[in-house]
Design brief:
With 212 residues, this protein is of the alpha+beta class. The protein is built from seven helices and five strands. It has a single domain (2-211), classed as Nuclear Transport Factor 2, Chain: A (Roll), CATH 3.10.450.710. The protein starts with a helix and ends with a helix. The model is unreliable at 15-26 (pLDDT under 50).
């Protein structure tokens, strides 16, 4: 239980990395580890200074996700990877519903954890990558409030408008978010199909809402 809570807490810090902070004018030129360091430090400072976020104000959490997370997160890739091969057979409507329900699930999972942010700080680890790499892993630790917690990111460099590095997977305490959900979703899809997975997510989100 404690391990799951820590995952939720650090996931909160990770996914909140883009909230309200804005991207630099030349975001496409910013190194991925520098971006994670900057965003993580700023978001921890923002959480510490905002009582409503720390209090788990879900409406504010959702609004911030909609406005500020998406520029830094490849959420479609995250959802598609979590759903697995069945994503390619999903209709556009099913894909939209899966993304919407998955986002709601993640938001409600870590909203309560925001209240636990106190004096944590970010420590970056050396990154092994070349200038030509289009996908990289950035490794870090959250320090403060107990043992250091491993927090790693997988990022992809995107071209075109809004070019730059985007997060598409997060590793908390040795467990990659996408792989964790992929095994859960696969069992639901095998038993009930894509519509069954959507229905399960809807019910889980309703149950979580009642606990809020």
């Amino acid at each position: 239980m404690k391990r799951d809570f820590l995952r939720s807490l650090v996931l909160a810090a990770g996914l909140l990395a883009g909230w309200g902070l804005g991207l630099p004018a030349h975001a496409e030129d910013e190194a991925p580890d520098a971006m994670i360091k900057r965003l993580s430090t700023e978001v921890l400072d923002s959480i510490k200074s905002d009582k409503s976020i720390r209090g788990g104000d879900l409406s504010k959490v959702v609004a911030l996700v909609d406005t500020h997370i998406l520029p830094n997160l490849d959420f479609q890739r995250m959802t598609a990877s979590s759903v697995g091969p069945a994503w390619r057979q999903a209709t556009p409507e099913q894909q939209k519903r899966l993304q919407d329900e998955f986002k709601t699930l993640l938001v409600r999972t870590y909203a309560g954890a925001l209240a636990q942010v106190t004096d944590q700080t970010i420590s970056m680890k050396p990154m092994r990558a070349s200038a030509e790499d289009k996908e990289v892993v950035v490794r870090s630790e959250i320090k403060g409030g107990g043992d250091p917690i491993q927090l790693d990111y997988r990022l992809v460099k995107t071209p075109g408008q809004g070019a730059g590095w985007k997060i598409y997977n997060i590793n908390v305490l040795g467990v990659w978010l996408v792989e964790n959900y992929k095994s859960q979703f696969a069992a639901e899809i095998n038993a009930k199909g894509l519509d069954g997975l959507i229905a399960t997510l809807v019910e889980r989100n309703k149950a979580n809402a009642k606990k809020s």
